[in-house]
Design brief:
With 272 residues, the chain is an alpha/beta fold. It is built from 10 helices and 12 strands. Helices cover 33% and strands 22% of the residues. Strands 8-7-6-11-9-12-10 form a 7-stranded parallel β-sheet, sandwiched between helices. A 5-stranded mixed β-sheet has the order 1-4-3-5-2. Helix 6 packs parallel to helix 10. The chain is elongated.
């Protein structure tokens, strides 16, 4: 069972991880992150991918959270505070009443890729700098059963509080790793036998015509610049046919369409 500690003083030093959350979001948390809300906390606990340092809950939420908190590893501190104290610590009204301080545990890209199954689906992200898009991408990756996400050096942090929230906790459950520059990310996938689909309005293949391989990687770039030519040259360019006057979609929307199509194609290629 977790260790319950009741807090009455907003200046209690044990709450340092939760102090001035928005300001800390901007400057970064080193090896830590903040997860917010009951659904996200459940994903964090159940997945067990990242260690939990502590949890801060509003007193009024404590009873309802008992079954979930009982699943925590022994010894983790659960701080319970009145709503006013919690709001003062965090720096804004925290309506969800639940925060967790986690410690990131990201594998090296080689380890992540080398431990994937023979049939695997990977999402590769290049230059995704918007946290809403990052959260949506991880949510779709989880929804369609992607085995891993690779990020290039230009991507924002999937464990930024807003990205975690938008992902509905999927950023805490889908394995991911930083894989260097975009061309290095692509090379790592090629070396492990992945068929690489690069989404671009310039793609020579319509998505509906794609025959997905057992090992497939989907590459998605930022809206506007898209994927660099060095990446497109190493992959099969794929486009989504759409009505005249439009040649692109929001990147998270694109990922949902493509993931669904690829998963269906993979199932058809390897029937039970």
């Amino acid at each position: 069972m977790p260790t319950l500690i009741r807090i009455d003083d907003p200046d209690d030093p044990r709450l340092a991880d939760y102090r001035d959350v928005r300001e800390r979001d901007l400057v970064g948390r080193g090896g830590g992150f903040i997860a917010e809300g009951v659904v996200v906390l459940e994903k964090l606990i159940r997945a067990g991918r990242h260690p939990i340092a502590s949890i801060l809950v509003a007193e009024k939420r404590l009873e309802a959270l008992q079954p979930l908190l009982a699943a925590l590893p022994a010894g983790i501190a659960v701080y319970a505070a009145g709503q006013a104290v919690m709001d003062q610590v965090v720096g804004f009204p925290i309506h969800r009443g639940v925060l967790a301080a986690g410690r990131r545990a990201e594998p090296e890209p080689e380890s992540l890729l080398d431990n994937l199954p023979a049939a695997a689906l990977v999402v590769g992200l290049v230059g995704i700098a918007n946290h809403d898009n990052m959260g949506g991408l991880f949510r779709n990756a989880a929804a369609f059963g992607a085995d891993a996400v690779l990020l290039d050096d230009g991507c924002c942090d999937p464990l930024y509080r807003k990205a975690i929230r938008v992902s509905v906790g999927a950023a805490l459950t889908v394995p991911f790793a930083r894989a260097g520059a975009a061309v290095d990310l692509t090379a790592r996938l090629q070396a492990r036998g992945f068929s690489i689909l690069a989404l671009s309005p310039r793609g020579e293949t319509e998505l509906a015509d794609v025959q997905a391989a057992a090992r497939t990687a989907i590459l998605l770039g930022a809206e506007g610049p898209g994927l660099p030519a060095s990446v497109m040259a190493r992959a099969r360019g794929v486009r989504i046919e759409m009505a005249g006057g439009f040649d692109s979609l929001n990147v998270a929307t694109t990922s949902g369409i493509v993931l669904h199509q690829v998963v269906v194609a993979q199932r058809r290629a390897t029937p039970d």
